[in-house]
Design goal:
Elements: E1 5-7, E2 13-15, E3 36-44, H1 49-63, E4 69-76, E5 83-90, H2 95-100, H3 103-112, E6 116-126
Antiparallel strand pairs: 1-2, 3-5, 3-6, 4-5
Helix pairs in contact: 1-3
């Protein structure tokens, strides 16, 4: 008679002895992603949507020229044109700070500040797929 069969995260089988459960410790791993993805959520005052969009696209065009930025997307929500998401993909942890030191970012920040219906928020994400070298 054999006991329950469990698998670890690598798919290896480990049979438990009869009458006794055997728990297999899962392999420990750490997130080692180098790429950093930031989603910035912005809510714009309705009569400022076009001005915000123009200023943000101008900032994005300059941002993608920075060596620390792999990608900079500007997305506008369908059904509510006052909502935007900026998807910023940085090549390393230090790139966001370098980005914030640029003249084009500072111009954007100061230009769009009065256009915000509420303060912008952001979420930092670790890249999983595609691989960092595929960006």
């Amino acid at each position: 008679m054999t006991g329950p069969v469990r698998k670890d995260i690598r798919g290896r089988k480990a049979a438990a002895p009869p009458g006794r459960r055997r728990f297999v410790r899962a392999a420990t791993f750490a997130i080692v992603a180098v790429m950093l993805v930031v989603h910035v959520h912005v809510h714009v005052v309705p009569d400022q949507v076009e001005a915000f969009r123009a200023a943000t696209v101008a900032n994005a065009r300059e941002s993608v020229r920075e060596p620390g930025i792999a990608r900079f997307d500007v997305l506008q929500q369908e059904g509510d044109p006052t909502r935007f998401i900026l998807v910023e993909v940085y090549r390393d942890e230090a790139a966001p700070a370098r980005h914030k030191e640029t003249a084009h970012y500072q111009l954007w920040r100061d230009t769009v500040a009065p256009m915000m219906a509420s303060p912008r928020t952001s979420v930092r994400l670790a890249n999983v797929f595609p691989a960092d070298d595929a960006w």
